[in-house]
Amino acid sequence: MAKMASAAETSSVSTIPATICKDLPLSFSRWISSLFGITEISESFPQNYNCKDSYSDLFCHLLKVESVQIGRVSCLFSVLPFVTNYYNGLHGGAVAAIAERVAIACARTVVPEDKQLFVGELSVSYLSAATQNEDLVVDGSVLRSGRNLTVVAIEFKTKKSGKLVYTARATFYHMPPAKL
Quick check: is 28 in a domain? Predict the structure, then answer.
């Protein structure tokens, strides 16, 4: 079995108290340490979003609804600096949050309000990067809706070229209304 050493013993780059295998080459440990050091949001959040329960407001105000039809929702989204990553691309967490929000709106066009929904699965494919200040069209459509679940597909395309940059699929489970 490989001996373990602390990060401080293995690499002078990392100051994080972690355990790193001694068999791991020093160059790998330095690369991993630098990777974790640079993968952070590039700018801080605006002050009014730096509080508990601001998640919904943060992303709802960034989405502009273009159209709502039964089983379809289309929105516009601008990639602003506070939702970009170190490389000035749309942060992956922001992609997932927007996909979830559009999927919920889309599912609600076919599922009655008396049924509660909860996300059972959300998968996102990152095909390309949406750069800072780029406008995206986010289209959601219901693929299947039944008595107990609804499946929604979401596509993120650049407004300028129509290039597909992200896709997502959400599965919602329905909670039946309580009978009292």
Answer: no
